[in-house]
Amino acid sequence: MRDTFTHLRRLLLASLACVLGAAALTYVIDPLQLFRASRLAAFYSDDTRVQNAGLIRSQSFDTAFMGTSLAIHFRQSDIDRALGVHSLKLAMTGSNSRQQSFVLEQAIDHGARRVIWEMDDFIFVDAADIEADPYLSVDLYRRTIKGIASYLFSAAMAKESLFALLRSVPPLRQPLTRAAPYLPVKFALSDIDDIYALPRDFDVARGYNAEKTLASFVYITSPVRSRFLGEGYGYDAMVRHFEQDALGLIARHPDVTFDIYFPPYSILQFVAMRDASPETLKIVTDLTAVIARRLTQLPNARLHDFRAIKAVTHDLGNYGDVIHHSPLVDAKVLHWLATGEYRVDPKNPVASLNELKAQVEAYRSALSTLGRMR
To answer: Could you tell me the maximum CA-CA distance found in the chain, to the nearest angstrom?
Structure first.
């Protein structure tokens, strides 16, 4: 019996030593750069909800760039060059306003004096409170005891730390760096500019074209799927989240300049709502009217509306589906932000919305194109 307890004690001590050793390795290597800038060659992850916590702590910046998948492919170098800023891209695919507001608050607390915010209607759908959000760890961002413990005692982070250590060995550096994108590790990007950006040799014409856009339109307007166009849309809840997450953040930081823009969806996104879910279209237009009126009254906010730029939004070759635009349009967005060409006039905040509504009502060419396709 005594031998059994002795072996058990040794097993427990060995297990504890392994756990503490892994935690120490994660602390020293710090792959997320949560405690300090990397002592080794830094590598980054496309898991932006986690990666952003480290970027905010380790990077120097004066501007935070936020958005959903509609803003995810921008490169920081392009933002800096077009707008004359030192930016940190914090866009998160599928993110809602609670997540975005929370992350932006952290960025502002760490030096952002300007926010570029891609704002679309869907971010205001009702969702979990940020404290209970299962997809974003507020404790990690706040570096609470719970957040630090979850980081240091994570087996996944220990694996990343070990890989980073091996990658620092000179003979292994080049082969492991080249192999990283194909291995089961998250921190595989050697350039911060590449975080969730399209490859520089990406075939834009193949990824974004009218055929894909029309196919997406057919898919989302199919009778068996069209009900999803309005999933999560509720006017009162969306207005409430706009007031809490957007207006609240802007009001709390009067010394920060907020450049907010409505992204240039293809016209087919609104036509799909018009034809298959008109009640959703009404919620969207009513909501954005409220947003436009409220934001344009704030002294530290500027609103830009790119949804009625017909030369872009009616050219279906600019899109990979009905909402996601190509890198060529990314460059246009940055140019428009720099020039203020489509800034909403506080004296007539719904002018661009009214123009969009007229375009949606009049649009018919997609239907004839689809008829030819079928």
So the answer is: 86
pLDDT of amino acid 374: 47
Distance CA 246, CA 256 (A): 13
What is the predicted pLDDT for the residue at 372? 47
The reply to whether 194 falls in a domain is no
Domain limits at 218? 51-143+202-373
Count of domains forming the chain: 1
Q: Is residue 3 part of a domain?
A: no
The pair of three-digit structure tokens given for residue 97, joined into one six-digit string: 């306003």
pLDDT at 370: 52
Question: Which residue stretches of the chain have pLDDT < 50?
Answer: 371-374
Quote the pLDDT of residue 258. 98
